[in-house]
Write a structure and sequence with these properties.
By secondary structure, the chain is an alpha+beta fold. 47% of the residues lie in helices and 18% in strands. The chain folds into three domains: 275 residues, 3-hydroxy-3-methylglutaryl-coenzyme A Reductase, Chain A, domain 2 (Alpha-Beta Complex); 103 residues, Alpha-Beta Plaits, CATH 3.30.70; 49 residues, Helicase, Ruva Protein, domain 3 (Orthogonal Bundle). The chain is globular, with a radius of gyration of 25 Å.
Amino acid sequence: MGDSQKSSRLSGFYQKTVTERVAILADWACLDTAEIDVLADSLGVAQADKMIENVVGRYALPLGIGANFLVNGDEHLIPMVVEEPSVVAAVSNAARLARSGGGFFAGSTEPVMIGQIQLLDVPDLAAAQTAILAAKEVLLAAADTSRTIARLGGGPRDLTLHPLAETLTGPMLIVHLHFDCRDAMGANAVNTAVETIAPQLERLSGGRALLRILSNLTDERRAWAETAIPVSVFATGEQSGHEVAQAIVEANAFAMADPYRAATHNKGIFNGIDAVLLATGNDWRAVAAGGHAYAARSGRYQSLTEWRLIARAEDWQQTSRAGTPSWLAEAVAYPLLYGRLEMPLSVGIVGGATRSHPAAQVALKILGVQSARHLAELIVAVGLAQNLAAVRALVTDGIQRGHMRLHARQIAVSAGANDAQVDAIAAQLVREGAIRLERAQELLTEIQKS
């Protein structure tokens, strides 16, 4: 579990040197010397050669720390692998704001994945369904193929049928195997299980099994996070806190109504989610596919997040959720900006890259997670924080102000500046409002001449 004795509120963390940050992190997570070394050189070429095919080298990305996270009352530092400037800074700031309302409160369903078997050329769809349902218990027993998952209390949970009477190639019967994967992401276990029962389904249906594979729309394996923040903390020099909070609600309403806005809105959520998935060795592509599919479950693609204003305690009774959330402290000052993100999140802490990649193991240790569900709850809290940061920036200063300030450093590096020159050139680019490679090269030439 996260450490409630230590605080993830790291004021001025961004101003410290890399060495100083590593020292703070090592103390936080009790990292030994070998684990500290992994932060700088996480994967050897020989290890990489065992992970994928045709390896010729490694491609490094920055590993940063999202600070200030309070989730379900526990303090957490969040390892994030991302190349885009401002993502880590923004999510850390949003997490700081959320602390004024008690942080984030997260939960999750049981880790049930769905495997699909596609049955074609079924002579009688109705008769096939009757036969398969009659043999459900036998099929579930046959699908219990993972001894490890079974020992931990997981395994096949249900079998459901989904006939498709009209497709481009004719009718087909789709069988869903619902499989509790426990702390594994579950792809291998589910795929093995559906392959195992496919021949039996062919005999029962009189058809032929074609595709036998898991679905990445894991809508039975979801996680959610909520926060309720006093609007006063959003005040700027030009806008009151209520005005900013109202603008966030209005911006979210735009993303609920318009798929063009929703695509960018949700991309901001995945800026944070993908970064943690990468850091922990999880399949970010699978989660993104499931998340975007879930965003279109109503028939129209829309925002994954919900933001609304709660003016007083009585207003909770007028919302779609009954009553004040049990986690909301009575002492919190109204009005509140309430946010919620719920989405499919299939992650694991055993198997795959989570075990084979040294940096993923260190990241999991920093997070302090003990189960896949706990990891999913932290990740969805990061997604909600990232969304808050992005929308708040859009409705106040605009997204470019902070983003371009950090982008200026990348431009300075691209111009050939060394470590001692980068910050000076970046600062001058920002002052001039001309964050261009040509200008950075001119400034570098001036510095070298002097």
